Amino acid sequence: MALISQQMTKLDQINDRILQELSRDGRISNLELADRVGLSPSACLRRVQELERSGIIKGYRAVLDRNALGGGFVAYVTVGLNAHTKAAQEAFERAISRAPEVRECHNITGAVEYLLRVEAASLEAYKAFHTDVLGTLPQVHAITSYVVMGSPKDVRA
Predict the structure, then answer these.
(1) What is the pLDDT of residue 6?
(2) How far apart are CA 51 and CA 15, in angstroms?
(3) What is the DSSP string of 17-36?
(4) Section 13-38 average pLDDT
(5) All structural domains of the chain
(6) Which of 113, 64, 71 lies closest to 92 in space, CA to CA?
């Protein structure tokens, strides 16, 4: 049995509040964050650094408006594989990791193995991805596309 030498970060109410505030605005200043969670700036900074070191905070991102960038087509795609082997899954995941259109890839339970979030410039660009990328992977048995018509709530960071 391996010994764990690193103490896990305690998720108390203050850390929960820090995480909530950073989820809403990752660019908030430490001074403002400390004020919102009721800590001194130095204590707040120490907690944020510990949350980062422990891997609870994995990074910070900019949330982009894909429509403003000319790439507003979004589809969720389920993918079923023709073989339920580790090798088939690894080969599929390697191929998908090279596809810039795939913004998220999740291995899921149920009737199919994967759920993808795909972003493209247009329906035509999505069709090319569907045909030229997904359609050519030997592991793929079934593809079902769900085109996003609107997103009344989207709180992904």
Answers:
(1) 42
(2) 8
(3) HHHHHHHH-TT--HHHHHHH
(4) 95
(5) 13-53 (1.10.10.10), 73-147 (3.30.70.920)
(6) 113
